[in-house]
Specification:
With 117 residues, this protein is an all-beta fold. The protein has one domain. Helices cover 0% and strands 56% of the residues. The strands form 2 sheets. The chain has a 6-stranded antiparallel sheet with strand order 1-10-3-4-5-6, with no helix packed on it. Strands 9-8-7-2-11 form a 5-stranded antiparallel sheet, with no helix packed on it. It is globular.
Length: 117
């Protein structure tokens, strides 16, 4: 099992995840007490009981996620599908955890702290 822990502050974050579209395994991102489950082989993302297509027009390869004080926003592919999941996030949890089956191939992962101007 792949497991990556990243310390986080009480701020908003942007996650850019690129993965193998043929991967049948699940990638889970836990942040502020909420889980986002990415399932490339099934072309979907799960946030709680809500599902969302990774790609509406082609092969799923990329997901952008923005997590802030009261929601998680998901943007698939090149922006062809967008979902906002209104959630109350727990800022007392100061780490983000990414887990995946050891056979999962994550091409790239970028985590950016969004600082208000």
């Amino acid at each position: 099992m792949l497991s990556i822990t990243v310390p986080v502050n009480r701020r908003a974050y942007r996650f850019d995840v690129e993965f193998s579209p043929a991967d049948k395994n699940r990638i889970v991102i836990d942040i502020f007490g909420k889980s986002v489950k990415i399932e490339p082989g099934m072309n979907l993302v799960r946030v709680g009981e809500t599902t969302f297509p990774l790609s509406a027009t082609g092969v799923p390869e990329k997901l952008v996620m923005i997590a802030d004080t009261c929601s998680i926003e998901l943007i698939s592919g090149k922006g062809e599908a967008i979902m906002t999941a209104p959630l109350l996030c727990d800022y007392n949890l100061n780490k983000m955890l990414i887990t995946a089956d050891e056979r999962t191939f994550i091409k790239s992962l970028t985590v950016t702290e969004l600082i208000p101007r």
